Every structure is written in C-alpha cells, then in structure tokens.
C-alpha cells in the first residue's frame, strides 16, 4: 500500500512526527512525506492512503506551513471524492478552547470536498502524553491493523 504523509507545522514537531512515522512504515509500505505548504490538493492521488499530521498554533490557528494547502482547498474547491485519509493532531489541552483546532480545521475542509476520514482523529497532548512520535505510532498501528485486516 502506498501511504502519503502530509504535515503542517510551525515549529517542526509535526514534521518530526511525519518523518518518524514514515521511517517506521517503510519496511512494509511505500511511503512519501510532504509538507502541506508544497502540496496541491487537486494533485492528491486517491489510490494512496493519506495521513495528515498537523499541529495547532496560537489561538487555534493552522500552523504556517498548512495555510497554502488550506487556501487552495478553500479557493480552488477541488473534488476529493475517493480520497481516504487518517488525521493526527498535535496540541496542548491546557489551551482548552483551541486544543486540536489545527487538525480539525483541515479535517473539516477535506471532508467538505468529498474526502473520507478513516476512523477518529488521533491526538497527542503535550500536557499529558510523552513523545509525540510514539503516541502517533501507537495510534497509527491500531488504525492500520483495522484497515489491513482480512475481511470475513
């Protein structure tokens, strides 16, 4: 299975998580990693499974590198029917009103254009969880086990 990991980052944490996930997946899957800043939503391949990793910045804003992607989604309105993705967000629950808004904003916009999120949004809470890459890896392993399980 080809997996494309897309990340939106402000300080580099989401990029680190994306790279760590890619390294863990490469033994069993073809993997590509790309910054959302360099990604054209209309060019996403529905034959790939996508994993979107994003932090939240400031008072719930998207991280800087996610804005170009988000603007293209809003302005160009690409049809994303058939695109399946997983979503993982990094945040801090001490910021009660803005916790996880970065990934939620991307998730809502992707769905608005016809993409289908698989399962729940995974989350790393900087206030409570340990290493974000370990949290993301445990979450992803669970999702992939369900996705790749043989159907009866």
TrEMBL record:
<dbReference type="InterPro" id="IPR008254">
    <property type="entry name" value="Flavodoxin/NO_synth"/>
</dbReference>
<dbReference type="GO" id="GO:0016491">
    <property type="term" value="F:oxidoreductase activity"/>
</dbReference>
<keyword id="KW-0285">Flavoprotein</keyword>
<dbReference type="GO" id="GO:0010181">
    <property type="term" value="F:FMN binding"/>
</dbReference>
<protein>
    <submittedName>
        <fullName>Cindoxin</fullName>
    </submittedName>
</protein>
<dbReference type="Pfam" id="PF00258">
    <property type="entry name" value="Flavodoxin_1"/>
</dbReference>
<feature type="domain" description="Flavodoxin-like">
    <location>
        <begin position="3"/>
        <end position="144"/>
    </location>
</feature>
<dbReference type="GO" id="GO:0050660">
    <property type="term" value="F:flavin adenine dinucleotide binding"/>
</dbReference>
<dbReference type="GO" id="GO:0005829">
    <property type="term" value="C:cytosol"/>
</dbReference>
